[in-house]
Amino acid sequence: MIDSHYEWQVLTNATDSEDQQLAESLGLPIVMVKLLKKRGLTSATAIETFLNPSPAEINDPFMLHDMERVIDRINEALINGEHITIYGDYDTDGITSTAIMYETLTMLDADVDFYVPNRFTDGYGPNKDVYERLIRQGTQLIITVDNGVSGHAAIDFANENGVDVIVTDHHEIPNELPAAYAIIHPQHPESEYPYKYLSGVGVAFKVATALLEEIPQEMMDLVALGEIADLVPLTGENRVLVTYGLKMLAQTTRPGLQALMELAGIGLHEITAEKVAFGITPRLNAIGRLESAQLGVELLVTQNPDDASNFAQTVNQLNDTRKQIVNDILAEAKSQIATVDLTSQKTIVLAGDGWHEGVLGIVASQVVELTNRPTIILTQANGKLKGSARSIEGFDLFQALSAHDDLFSSFGGHASAAGLSLVSSNLDKLKVAFEHEADIQNIILGTKAPLIIAEKLPVEAVNEQLLMAIQRLAPFGNGNEQPYFEITGIVSDIKQIGAEKNHLKFNLLANDVKLAALAFGKGELGTGLLIDKAPLNVVATLTENTWQGQTSLQLMVKDLQQGGLAIIDQRTNKLRPDNFKLTGQYVFFNPKVKTQLMPYLNTESSAVSITNGDKLVNNVPTILVDLPKKLADLELLKGYQFKELRVIFYTSQHVYLESLPTKADFGKLYKYFLGHANIPIRDELSKLAKFLQIGVNQLSLMITVFFELGFVRIENGVLNVLPNPEHADITSAPSYQGWITKQAIEKSLIYSKTSELTKILESLIS
């Protein structure tokens, strides 16, 4: 069987007459109506409003607290020719916020520049030293975007030096607000703004709208980028902003964005929130993760095509570097995880020397995905540790770490993510404390992360009409997730694709209907799927696939499960340490091979000599390491339950492709032996094989047969013919019969196709 990675939670509800009436009145599939009702849209009016976002839903910017005060102060600065500095942030939301504010003030002929803090030297938010430098260089008004609401010290310094600070932010409001000239924040305690979930770029856009006295539609492409990147809920006003922002992005005239999307392989005509999230956002975020994010703003605001192309090339290269760094750190992290007792440990805390600080949050998220455990990833240098933490559903990270804030030099975050630094000597204390908090919050080992499924659907219900209806829910994102459906069918036409064969492409069949499916990161399972046999359950979203001008429906698989015996084919003729990384039970048919290979197993794995009577454990990963001497040995596995069965079937000596020596070959060799005495076969077997023009394995077999039948004597590696041996049939020798048996076993277990091997093992084990 292949088990699911997630816990599937189907939000089922029966279809009633009201659902049917709504579906008919709105012209929607019944599945769509049920889905919308689950999301709180229960009337035709509510559904129509949601499916047809309107600019009328964009709120008046002057409803935000302090907006009039902000506009008056900026206009005053414009009149007086004051030098304005926009103080931004280094992620995509901050970069786009900076670009919008800069373009707006430039349109108004302001004396304006921008400063994006460096993640490594300045840190997040207002920095007193940077403010001091800016003021010394002539800045007379500072406008923060996507930061500032917690910047007390820097803002106080600016006030003391006669420089006003306008804060525009959306992050969590502290108990005490800074003494800024004005604060624009959708959740300001004195605000009556009707929508609370704008991102930083959304807030900057509201200021731009108020300053320009109209909605600057040409800037909405940047709004879409920032809002999608910052994972704010795509509901209410955000849904409208992103919907129209994506339309503007599809016709953007920004040379920087055009060049970047071309490098990302994204056509303007195919812009979606998903393509932004996975194609553009990682590239823009990579800038601030590795270098100064000033480059990101320059990319977005330049009108020079040559500069745009150069900027885009640099950004793309930074993203490639970022991916390689993440892969390298993740590989080291996995090696450390292999030493962790996951049967008892509820949390993961990993540290490495020189791990790049800018990508630790990405690595932490990937480790959480792998282990379903709250995770802290730290980089170590000069006796200090700095890093990122990510959580799982049901575990409050901020609460857990706040209880031990005495361990940290600095710490900040929220329930699902945090940043922290500490001295290296506190690492062991942190591990103990983090594990203790997991006990307090009652993390239960063995539980899977939940995966919410909108509906179970038969294959025949998945069609272009349903896809078109689902696409009306877009843009998808936080708060408006693309719906997952559970679909069951028979597997056919499996292909492992990708440079490293780590993705799966296959078809799902049922009732004469065939659906194409793609499963990223599931390549290893390809050899374990039962083709044309046991039903496969998949959880997938519905997407379009365009190939050679033809567009068709495709399932994008998130998770899958299948009953029956899952055989994962890892057969090889050369063993490597990677063959023994998996924690599980390694089954050996030859005790000598077990003795040789046991040192390569990790400490959590077990070695089982099945032919010596060792017992297996049910429902743990099981690896068949070496080739059995006879097929009947595999029947020793009967009666056990396997979560998965991996087969290596290693043998140091392959005989299937070598022909069995003929009687003539035996006669020729015996004649040679009769004419020679004291033949040193131990030291010169290869020379003798070459002289006789016969394979070493074949020569070794014939010598063994002669020895077993009493034709020769071998002492201390030296062979001599025995006088007057009794007549015997060479085919009766045990080694001769063993060669025939091994050829048959190799044919069945080594040289068979995966599908054939599966059938053989099922017949012997089930």
TrEMBL record:
GO terms for biological process: DNA recombination; DNA repair. Gene3D superfamilies: 3.10.310.30, 3.90.1640.30. Residues 567-759 form the Single-stranded-DNA-specific exonuclease RecJ C-terminal domain. Keywords: Exonuclease, Hydrolase, Nuclease. Coiled coil: none annotated. It comes from the Bacteria. The keyword DNA damage does not apply. The keyword Hydrolase applies. Residues 83-226 form the DDH domain. InterPro entries: DDH_dom, DHH_sf, DHHA1_dom, RecJ, RecJ_C, RecJ_OB, SSDNA_exonuclease_RecJ. Residues 346-435 form the DHHA1 domain. Residues 456-559 form the RecJ OB domain. SUPFAM superfamilies: DHH phosphoesterases (SSF64182). GO terms for molecular function: 5'-3' exonuclease activity; nucleic acid binding. Belongs to the RecJ family. PANTHER family: SINGLE-STRANDED-DNA-SPECIFIC EXONUCLEASE RECJ. This is Single-stranded-DNA-specific exonuclease RecJ. It comes from Periweissella fabalis. The gene is recJ.
